[in-house]
Amino acid sequence: MSEATTAIAVVQTVAIVAASVTAGIIFGLSHIAVPALYHAPTPIMLKQWATIYAIGKATGPVAALVAATAFGYLARAVPALRYSYVGAAALSITIVPWTGIMMTATNDELTNRLAAFEKLKDGEAAAEAGRPQGEKTVDLMAKWQALNYVRALFPLAGAVLAAWATLS
């Protein structure tokens, strides 16, 4: 195996693993972390969600960028698979605009409810203050959970597309 072939194999592995891990972490938040949050009182649920959100906001885009960059390199290095790797790159980085377009309102509302709680220090009443009729914090968390499940599909689809192209 030549050095160039070895380098391409390494980048293929890094890209597919990075996209897969990103998808797995995002999926895990909705499938494991959020159901655990439902057992906490609303103020604690919001504080724990804010911690999860802050960590995800700092690491998710970076992981997606690593995958997308590696797929971009592969699109140039392996012309026969260019379109597959470009597609994988686009899918992997789509978590960023998806979050901005589809999740910002929910993220902001959850953040505002936490801020209201911290300002008033009055438990459930503070967290639920000013909420729209019929929309409880737990319902908002369920909405976030569903949107996050969808977000996990983008890097997963990128990893599957790249793996399929690489192995075909």
Structure description:
With 168 residues, this protein is mostly helical. It contains 6 helices and no strands. α2 runs antiparallel to α4 (95-120) and α4 runs antiparallel to α6 (137-167). The two termini are 19 Å apart. The mean pLDDT is 92.
Summary keywords:
168 residues; mainly alpha; elongated
Can you give me a brief rundown of this structure?
The protein is mainly alpha-helical and 168 residues long.
Low-pLDDT runs of 5+ residues are none
The overall pLDDT, averaged over residues, is 92
> What is Rg?
19 Å
Strand content: under 5%
What is the element string, with H for helices and E for strands?
HHHHHH
Helix content: over 70%
Number of strands: 0
Main structural class: mainly alpha
Shape: elongated
Distance between the termini: 19 Å
Task: Classify the oligomer.
Answer: single chain
Largest sheet: none
Q: What is the number of helices? A: 6
Question: How is this fold's topology laid out?
Answer:
Layout: H1 3-37, H2 42-77, H3 82-93, H4 95-120, H5 123-128, H6 137-167
